[in-house]
Design goal:
With 162 residues, this protein is α/β, with parallel strands linked by helices. 27% of the residues lie in helices and 14% in strands. It is built from four helices and five strands, in the order H-E-E-H-E-H-E-H-E.
């Protein structure tokens, strides 16, 4: 063999793949979201997925999206992947880092992203883009100078056997 391999995956494929793999840890029956935070020199700093906080057993809290009482839905209890990734980081500052996420962040996560110093968001899906929460998110992120990048899939199939 002469020369290096040419069919290796790109950084974007790698980090979005990690975010996708992280999403597979979510126990949410409706939406599984994963996130991966990366340093400016392409080192993984943290990962997260949507789920309940530590110490809140998955079988004792509701997973329902709708109900007569919001207390009985998942929204009061679940932590989004982006916030989990930020909270999971134990290494100091996230200033200047990139966030790879499978779903565009909501307004609450946008606040944490801005405050943590993340400067770029690479997102795979924006299916809630017309909601007030995501519109507010984009407004804040743009105002704070956070770069928003839609991930462009290469069509390459990545497979992991475990």
């Amino acid at each position: 063999m002469s020369g290096k391999r040419q069919d290796y995956i790109s950084w974007d494929e790698y980090f979005m793949g990690v975010a996708e793999l992280s999403a597979m840890r979510s126990k949410d029956p409706g939406t599984q979201v994963g996130a991966c935070i990366v340093s400016p020199d392409n080192k993984i700093l943290s990962m997260g997925y949507n789920g309940f906080p530590k110490g809140c057993p998955d079988d004792e809290f509701p997973w329902e999206r709708e109900g007569d009482d919001p207390y009985e839905t998942k929204y009061f209890y679940s932590t989004h992947s982006e916030l989990n990734a930020i909270l999971n980081y134990r290494g100091g500052s996230l200033e200047g880092s990139k966030l790879y996420v499978t779903l565009f962040p909501c307004n609450e996560c946008a606040k944490a992203i801005i405050q943590s110093g993340i400067k770029t968001i690479i997102y795979a899906d924006d299916k809630y883009g017309d909601t007030s929460a995501v519109r507010a998110s984009k407004r804040m992120l743009r105002s704070a100078g956070v770069e928003l990048v839609l991930y462009r899939p290469t069509g390459r199939r990545l497979e992991v056997s475990v």
